[in-house]
Every structure is written in C-alpha cells, then in structure tokens.
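re: that chain from earlier
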Amino acid sequence: QVQLVESGGGLVQAGGSLRLSCAASGFTFTNYDMNWYRQAPGKEREFVAAIHWDYGSTHYRDSVKGRFTISRDKARNTVYLQMNDLRPEDTAMYYCNQYTYWGQGTQVTVSS
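^ sequence. v structure.
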C-alpha cells in the first residue's frame, strides 16, 4: 500500500522558516520525481518543487527559488522541503506527490 505522510506545517510569521517532511512507503522509488505541491483556499493546486529520487536534480517554481530547498534522505525514504523567508502568499496546504499518489497535506500559514 502506497503511503505519503506529510508533517511539519504550522503557523509562522513572515520571514520565518519551516521544514516539511514527507515519509514515503509502499512503492519503488527508482527513476521517479518526488514533488511538493500547494493549494491555497479558492485557488488551484500548483507545483512547488521536485527532486529526482536517483539523481537528486531539482526544480522549483519561480516564486520560491532562492527561498525553498527540496532534498531527500534515501535511507529514510523521506523528502523534505526547507522553506525560508516565508511570505503570506506562501500560505497553503502543502502536498507531497509521487506519480498518481498524494499525501493528506500539511497546512502552512504565514502571518504578516
């Protein structure tokens, strides 16, 4: 059974930091991207960042470049999203994704 379990969300002031985690299990990790998406109230879900599990290559949406860093720990089957210099517009539910699988999400709220 495939499982993606996010954690690490919370309430933070603008300029603060959070680190999200996504613990994955139940599938073969080879040759896939692991992704983070987010969805704010009333808006569509949008891509945030991706990392190739094997090669470690990364991709980011423009608005988070230089502030967010995606990484993975192969031994722990976990993907992280380090978020620095958070802004109110980063407020959203953040989801971990691999192929067609999604986690339940973790809420990030940034106050101004």
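The chain has a mean pLDDT of 95.
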